[in-house]
Fold this protein.
Amino acid sequence: MLTSLLLSTVLAADCDRGWSRKALLGSVGRVEKAHRALDLEGLHKAADEVRVRIPCVGEALLPEDAARIHRAEGLSRFSGGDHEGAAMAFAASRTLEPDWSFSAHQVPEGHPLHQAYTALSIIGAGYAGVPQPQVGRVLVNGAERRGRPLDWPALVQVVGDQGVLLGAYLWPQDPFPQIHIEAVPLPLFASEGFVPPTREEKPSNAPEALSHRRSEVRYDAVAALEDEQEATEPILWALFTDPADEVRLKAWRVLRARARRGHGDQARQVEAVGWLAEHGDGMIQEEAVALLPSLQVD
């Protein structure tokens, strides 16, 4: 059963929350600048500054902020020889900005940093439930979510009416603050009757590019379907059957955007989101759960 978790208390961190979002991102910028300048000492100093400031930021951070913070952590870990930790931090960043990559200007072709950046698959990862406060809300990587990743780090904030109550950069082994929680069922749209398509059930209106042998061509073909009114079935076919992680994730992003706008076969799209919320896995399931309450069916 899908559940929402209620907090009985929220623990405050040991700082006065005097740092602004701008100040924190300034520290992130110094990590990026030091990396470009090959200044390892400056990079690690700036990265430590980011880690110290995260718990003391008084403003809610955005998903794009979290993506930059994860990349900064990855750069610090990589330059310090912790390639496993770097890959985990980079994976966290890629879940937020899957289209972002280091340019040749930032990192030369063939540099091992490129391999570390894409070392971990971001599809099918596990997620653990996070407590939802009775007062305020929990942000995971800059957005309200009901889960935190089990395979890479997460930027977590508890935000109330008066600002941020708690902030932390949590690695998978780090526990959430120990607080009493109570499970409460979440309402879900019914997804009965929805059957995910198989590879053999290619829709007649699916563009040929969705069957191309190169994943980047299929990726672009999925992206081009976002505004096509009759493209719901081809998108679902790519989402459930494409062999490439990045194509399936892009298909999910396209489906999510269409469902939010009510564009396309909304009843079918809502059924698919409901199925993913109940039977999917990893990040896509967690995002589907968060999306469902906002969807409307005409």
